[in-house]
EMB1873 protein
Amino acid sequence: MAVKVLEGRPDELGFRMPAEWEPHGQCWMGWPERTDNWRDNASPAQELFARTAIAISEFEPVTLCASANQYPNVHKQMEHQKNIRVVEMSMNDSWFRDMGPTFITRSGESRSAKQTIAGIDWQFNAWGGIYDDWSLDSDVAKKIVEIERIPRFPHKMILEGGSIHVDGEGTCITTEECLLNPNRNPNMTKLEIENELKHFLGVSKVIWIPRGLYGDEDTNGHVDNLCCFIKPGVILLSWTDDEEDPQYERSVEALSVLSQSTDAKGRQLEVVKIHVPGPLYMTKEEAKGVESTGHAVPRKPGTRLAASYVNFYIANGGIIAPSFGDKWDKEAYEVLQKAYPDHKVVMVEGAREIVLGGGNIHCITQQQPLRPSS
């Protein structure tokens, strides 16, 4: 029996997208395997995904989705992990932040109180078509809400979860570079896109940052690689002190916008800086390990990697963040621990492997909020 498809505007029905630090029921992840995106038959990436899932499972349940071909291997690896379940699911790739549902909730006092959680099923087009086939990815959101028997809000707009961040109190941040890119929704105006975000995320204010992280061409500048909310009124921003680094101009630009902005509650935004690693570049050996099939964006040696410490996951009581073996790792840990004093910061070593594929820890995870009691 299919789950209910909901109609109308979620905000008018009392729904909102919770902030990532609000309680989770579980975390969803996919399992990487495509050899034209992940080097060396995806083996190094699979090791990183496994260690990330295990790190998150110390704080909350994890559902790890793997293809029929990979399921036996993944199940064997995880069978002794008490807080991880493995589910068979077909997909083109493993970026669950972007292809999974955006979960929204409402309190039990709202109308039709029995339905206190739902999933938004945005349209997905593989970040403007960097793969030539994303038909399996397009169904991932449907599959997740079906498994959980959660109602679904279908949406006609193309949007990836990594392109938005919310504070849970009415404010959304995003980038013009991504959401206004003609490879997403060329027939929609900025105002139309903003109104859809307000209606479906339950926010009243959208703050537009011009550009994302330098070199983040795969996603066209997702906001989750550049900045995020630490808490309402406070933003963590990727930064560099090197004025010769192309990232400097982008960080200063974002700082200017954020410093002059107020949130939905009228608070002046405070900005906390966290230095980017590197700069890091793809090596010849790394690029050589990726198969050239003509079905995915090519990986070229010397490419600047879109690496940042902002691309982390907030679990129930934990911060799961990337570590690159870089001189800035220690400072990043200290900034994150100070930003989240009530959380345990866990740095996942070797996260460069995920960056080589075009994202990082936040990109491969999708939180499912705790279902409010009816």
In short: The chain is about 25% helix and 20% strand. The radius of gyration is 19 Å. The mean pLDDT is 96.
